[in-house]
Specification:
There is one protein chain. It contains 11 helices and 8 strands. Helix content is 44%, strand content 18%. It has an 8-stranded mixed beta sheet with strand order 3-2-1-4-5-7-6-8, with helices on both faces. The chain has 2 domains: 2-69, DNA polymerase, domain 1, CATH 1.10.150; 79-308, Vaccinia Virus protein VP39 (Rossmann fold), CATH 3.40.50.150. By secondary structure, it is α/β, with parallel strands linked by helices. Strand 1, helix 6 (113-121) and strand 2 (126-132) form a beta-alpha-beta unit.
C-alpha cells in the first residue's frame, strides 16, 4: 500500500502541475507525466513497486482525470470486475496456460485496466493485443503497459474495421454499449441489423469470434439485459451457429450506479470439432464481494461445475 500511495501521489502532483501551468486537462497531465517517466525526464519513484501497485496507482490517477473531464467514452472497468474476469480466464484456460503463454485480445482496450489486471494475475503466461479508437486512452494504455513491463501490441483503430490480428486463445472485453454509426462497415457482419442501426456490442462479439482460434474462450462484460433487447433473437441465433455459451454470471447488486448500467459476464467458447458444448451452462450470481463466506461458496460452485462440464 505504501508503494501505491507513493506512486499515486507522485503522478497526481506532476499532473496537477501540468493542469495549473498549461492549458492541459488533468488527464492530459497524467499522460504527459507517464511519458516524462518513460523518457527519463523525471526520477521514477516506482522502481521497487510491483506491477499491480503501478497499475493501480496509474489507474487511480486516470480515474480522477476521467471524473474531472466526464467524457462518456472515458469509462474504466472496476478492479473488482477485472479480478473476477481474471479468475475465470485462469479457470477456463488452466491447461493451456501450463503449456506456454496464451494470446489475449481486448478489442475495446480503453486505458488497458481490464487487460492489464488479467495479465498481472497471469504474469509471464500471456501476451496480448489491444484495439482502441480513442487516441488519449490508447496512449494511456501504452504507457501503463510499458511501466508494468507487460507485452501488449496496441492498434489505434476502430475495432470493427478490418484488423491485422492473428487468431487468439482468449478474448476479454468490457463491451462498449450502443449503436454503431458506420452502417457501411456494419453490412459486413452477420449481426448487422435488418432495419435501423446495429448494436456495436453485438458486432464486437462477432468480430471477437472472427479473430479467435477454434476452441478459444471469450469473456465479455455485457449489458444485463443482453438477451432481452430488440436484436437479441439475431444474437442468439448467431451464437448457436458459432459458439457455445459456457456461463452467464450475474454480477453483484449495488455494483453499478443504477439499474440501466448493470452488467453480467458472458463466457463463450468458439465452436470446434475438437471440443464439445458443456453439459449445462453455468448460471450463477456473484454475491456481495465483502461477504467472504458467500464468495467462497460461489467459487466452490464454479469448481463443481468445472469438474462436471
Amino acid at each position: 500500500m505504501e508503494n501505491l500511495e507513493k506512486i499515486f501521489s507522485f503522478i497526481n502532483e506532476k499532473s496537477e502541475q501540468y493542469e495549473q501551468n498549461s492549458e492541459l486537462t488533468y488527464l492530459e497531465g497524467v499522460l504527459n507525466t507517464l511519458e516524462d517517466i518513460l523518457d527519463q525526464k523525471i526520477e521514477w519513484v516506482g522502481k521497487d513497486a510491483s506491477k499491480e501497485e503501478i497499475r493501480k496507482a496509474v489507474q487511480l490517477a486516470i480515474l480522477k482525470g476521467m471524473r474531472k473531464s466526464s467524457q462518456p467514452n472515458h469509462q474504466m472497468t472496476p478492479d473488482s470486475l477485472g479480478l473476477l474476469v481474471g479468475y475465470f480466464v485462469e479457470q477456463f484456460v488452466e491447461e493451456k496456460l501450463s503449456q506456454g503463454p496464451v494470446s489475449i485480445l481486448d478489442p475495446a482496450v480503453g486505458t488497458g485496466n481490464l487487460l492489464l489486471t488479467v495479465m498481472n494475475m497471469l504474469d509471464g503466461k500471456t501476451f496480448s493485443t489491444g484495439i482502441e479508437v480513442d487516441e488519449t486512452l490508447i496512449r494511456l494504455a501504452a504507457d501503463t503497459a510499458e511501466l508494468t513491463q507487460q507485452p501488449i501490441m496496441l492498434y489505434h483503430q476502430d475495432a470493427l474495421q478490418k484488423m491485422l490480428v492473428d487468431p487468439v486463445d482468449v478474448v476479454v472485453c468490457d463491451l462498449p454499449v450502443g449503436y454503431y454509426p458506420n452502417e457501411d462497415v456494419a453490412l459486413d457482419y452477420e449481426l448487422c441489423a435488418r432495419e435501423g442501426m446495429s448494436y456495436a456490442h453485438h458486432l464486437l462479439i462477432e468480430q471477437s469470434i472472427n479473430h479467435s482460434k477454434d476452441g478459444a474462450y471469450l469473456f465479455f462484460l455485457v449489458p444485463a439485459n443482453l438477451f432481452e433487447s430488440e436484436q437479441a433473437n439475431e444474437l442468439h441465433n448467431y451464437l448457436k451457429k458459432h459458439a457455445w455459451i459456457q456461463a452467464v454470471i450475474q454480477l453483484p447488486d449495488g455494483l453499478f450506479a443504477n439499474k440501466s448500467l448493470e452488467k453480467s459476464m458472458l463466457i463463450l467458447q468458439k465452436q470446434s470439432k475438437d471440443h464439445r458444448a458443456p453439459r449445462e451452462v453455468l448460471l450463477a450470481k456473484v454475491p456481495n464481494m465483502s461477504n467472504k463466506q458467500a464468495l467462497s461458496a460461489f467459487f466452490e460452485k464454479v469448481q463443481i461445475w468445472k469438474k462436471q462440464k
